[in-house]
């Protein structure tokens, strides 16, 4: 394919974090290089905010600064490298957390979405350990495979998914990470069965994704747990059957779940908060011998090491970690995108606040508001 890569460096606006915490941000002129052979330069249209962005702004788990954050979003392809085959200039695309080569041992096995060739990237750089962004001659780090809180970014083509151009742009941004992570956890990781019971710890975008998938898969009881009472209505909109606010009781959450689901507990638990003590509660709330707990919440650095009661696992329960909900970028995410296009999810319920790129400093404060689920960033 003939290259359509522009050789020009683009100067544009980007939200730069300098390492002093979530408030140490300035929207500045940055330079974005042309895409290399298998890369794509994307003009961002819209982005959204995830709690993982908040952790990275604080330098957790690695203080990589200066940094342009954002990993959820949607944009249009501005230019491509000479070896790019999956997208063309003008395509509407969303970034993905991981790639899928469909050739490595893990991709062929169908047992995991952890592609060995295109894994999650945590060093803030491209696959060749260089950056395509800079400010006043200084290298800029991105978040994972991308940095969506800027007007332009460069992404390896295998971390992009082409979507229908008529898709709601806000919805497209939501499925690029958070909502899809939860949906995939119920669908691909736990493989929720019709008639089963489950509990979801945390009713943010990830937890509501779990609820949505569980409802579609025919779960008979879907229990949502959140200390924010305002999340009850959100959970019900996505299909939740029961709600627990743990601050309203002195009993352990696992006991409250068993009281609702029967003394044996639920078939599945999903830990979406990253709060370490809740992991034991989630495991103990599942059925002895066959209960499954999936955890995907991102914890702070000093909480990386968690404890789960030995007996809880010894009695036959399963605890499994999940990246991007077990979704494969090419095989599975297009299915969610199609459902999104058909409005099969009430994703408008997630959109509670909006800011412009120039107002990005307000985003994290809004995320802490009790009525906030997602913050949309208008680029």
From TrEMBL:
SUPFAM superfamilies: GroES-like (SSF50129), NAD(P)-binding Rossmann-fold domains (SSF51735). This is Alcohol dehydrogenase-like 2. GO terms for cellular component: cytosol. GO terms for molecular function: S-(hydroxymethyl)glutathione dehydrogenase [NAD(P)+] activity; zinc ion binding. Keywords: Metal-binding, NAD, Oxidoreductase, Zinc. Signal peptide: none annotated. Pfam families: ADH_N, ADH_zinc_N.
């Amino acid at each position: 394919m003939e290259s359509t890569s522009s050789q020009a460096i683009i100067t544009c606006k980007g939200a730069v974090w300098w390492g002093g915490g979530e408030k140490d941000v300035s929207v500045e002129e940055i330079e974005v290089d042309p895409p290399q052979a298998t890369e794509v330069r994307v003009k961002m249209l819209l982005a959204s905010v995830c709690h993982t962005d908040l952790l990275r702004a604080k330098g957790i788990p690695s203080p990589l600064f200066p940094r342009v954050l954002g990993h959820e979003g949607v944009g249009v392809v501005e230019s491509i490298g000479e070896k790019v085959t999956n997208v063309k200039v003008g395509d509407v695309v969303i970034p993905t957390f991981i790639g899928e080569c469909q050739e490595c041992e893990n991709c062929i096995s169908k047992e995991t979405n952890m592609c060995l060739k295109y894994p999650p990237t945590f060093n803030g750089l491209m696959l060749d350990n260089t950056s395509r962004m800079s400010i006043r001659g200084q290298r800029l780090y991105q978040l994972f495979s991308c940095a969506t809180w800027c007007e332009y970014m460069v992404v390896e083509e295998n971390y992009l998914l082409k979507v229908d151009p008529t898709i709601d742009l806000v919805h497209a941004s939501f499925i690029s990470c958070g909502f899809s992570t939860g949906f995939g956890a119920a669908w691909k990781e736990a493989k929720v069965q019709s008639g089963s019971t489950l509990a979801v710890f945390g009713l943010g975008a990830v937890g509501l994704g779990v609820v949505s998938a569980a409802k579609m898969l025919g779960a008979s009881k879907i229990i949502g747990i959140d200390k924010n009472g305002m999340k009850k209505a959100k959970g019900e909109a996505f299909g939740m059957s029961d709600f627990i606010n743990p601050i309203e009781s002195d009993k352990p959450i696992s006991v409250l779940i068993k009281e609702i689901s029967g003394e044996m507990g639920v078939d599945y638990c999903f830990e979406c908060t990253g709060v370490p003590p809740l992991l034991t509660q989630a495991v103990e709330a599942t059925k002895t011998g066959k209960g499954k707990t999936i955890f995907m919440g991102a914890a702070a650095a000093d909480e990386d090491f968690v404890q789960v009661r030995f007996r809880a696992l010894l009695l036959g329960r399963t605890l499994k970690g999940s990246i991007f909900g077990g979704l494969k970028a090419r095989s599975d995410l297009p299915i969610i995108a199609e459902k999104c296009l058909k409005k099969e999810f009430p994703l408008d319920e997630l959109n509670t606040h909006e800011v412009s790129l120039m107002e990005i400093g307000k985003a994290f404060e809004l995320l802490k508001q009790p009525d906030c689920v997602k913050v949309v960033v208008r680029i």
